[in-house]
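ARCHIVE CARD
Drawer: 12
Card no.: 0347
Subject: one protein chain, sequence and derived structure
Cross-reference: see card 0346
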Amino acid sequence: MTKSYKYTIYSCYVGYITQAIVNNLGPLLFLTFQQQFSISVERIGFLITMNFGIQLIVDLLAAKYVDRIGYRVCMVFAHFMAAAGLIGMGIFPFLFPTPYAGLMAAITLNGIGGGLLEVLVSPIVEAAPTGAKEKAMSLLHSFYCFGHVGVVILSTLGFKLIGMENWRYLPMIWAVLPFLNAFVFMRVPISVLVEEENRIPIKKLLSMRIFWLFFVLMLCAGASEQAMSQWASYFAESSLHVSKTVGDLLGPCSFALLMGVSRVFYGKCGERIKLEKFIFMSSVLCVASYLLAVFAPIPIVSLLGCALCGLSVGIMWPGTFSIAARECAQGGTAMFAFLALAGDAGCMSGPGLVGVVADHTSKWGLKGGLFAAIIFPVCIAAIFLIRKEKKNAPA
């Protein structure tokens, strides 16, 4: 049985690579959008907010309907929507009445596909008959990071080969991956996470204090990650004044690579380190990396801060998923959907906060926005510190 699920796990890896594409290809083109279509920084920031806002709505609907429709149908649909959104990114801005409306339409399709993938990939792997779930979850989420690295490196190479003036062909080429993976999900075996009679009812789940703790952790994890990830390319070009190639490779690419390293490390060595302690230490490093990116006087050191941020946020999202699955074992798909909703709310609010603060602090600009985002890893550190003190307190 375990062997037959090998291809299910592999296709889930590709599913997370697909999500990395739909979330991170657009930010590489933000400056191009601004220059070619005369779009303001605030409106570009709204594209990020819209992407994760759509994913948030999909997460909410998935909590109620995914178990009724079935994992397989939803996964196939998610991949086709992601492919359609990527094709639309290259076509819609030139077809719609305004380029911005075309980008919004493409982002909507990407958001639907990405939202369903976030809800479904983790419970499918969690339900597969394999051992060491916490390590497996961390390893699974590393493919999002390496997908992000692949997007940056291959897209940078593509821009060099075909020229930035032909950027619209790159999203169409990337659409091939989710299109093909949709057909794989039509055939691979898929297990249900928790049988219907054993699931905690949604109403009861929402009344549990521990669930809301995980909800806040996921929100802060998504915000800590995407506040830097979504703005790293723009930050390198506009605030640090380095070339696009250097900025993308040392900014978002290094960020994603080190985020993946963090997840692979825990996936291989997780039994030696308590997960809660690892997340707390990572949140402290996250605060330090944001401060380094904002206040370092040398651009290369600021880019090092961006990269270290990737190392620090790597465990936050999959680690919270794993702790929640351990402490709310009967939460089922609904719990994963609500946690994905919280994560996407963070992915939306983190970059959104950065964009708004940047537009309203003319002296600091994007550095001021990134400094404001420190609030999210600070909250994660505080939550785990309070939990530890409560556990150590005398009865």
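Annotation on reverse: The first helix runs from residue 6 to 24. The chain has a mean pLDDT of 84.
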